[in-house]
Design a protein that fits this description.
The protein has one domain. With about 50 residues, it is of the alpha+beta class. The protein is elongated and about 30 Å long. The chain has a two-stranded parallel sheet.
């Protein structure tokens, strides 16, 4: 995994399709980098699992 640059720390991100696949991976990575992430997906349980 690439090293953190902190460029998104404190920023807000809104991810659609965040319950699985690329959306989930992007959401997790942005959160690790310090962004405030909001998820949207038709699969609420899946999105909740990513959020937890």
């Amino acid at each position: 995994m690439a090293q953190s640059t902190g460029r998104v720390a404190g920023k807000k991100a809104f991810i659609t399709g965040g319950a699985q696949g690329l959306g989930a991976a992007a959401a997790r990575r942005l959160a690790e980098e310090g962004a405030k992430v909001s998820l949207a997906d038709i699969n609420f349980a899946g999105a909740q699992g990513v959020a937890d």
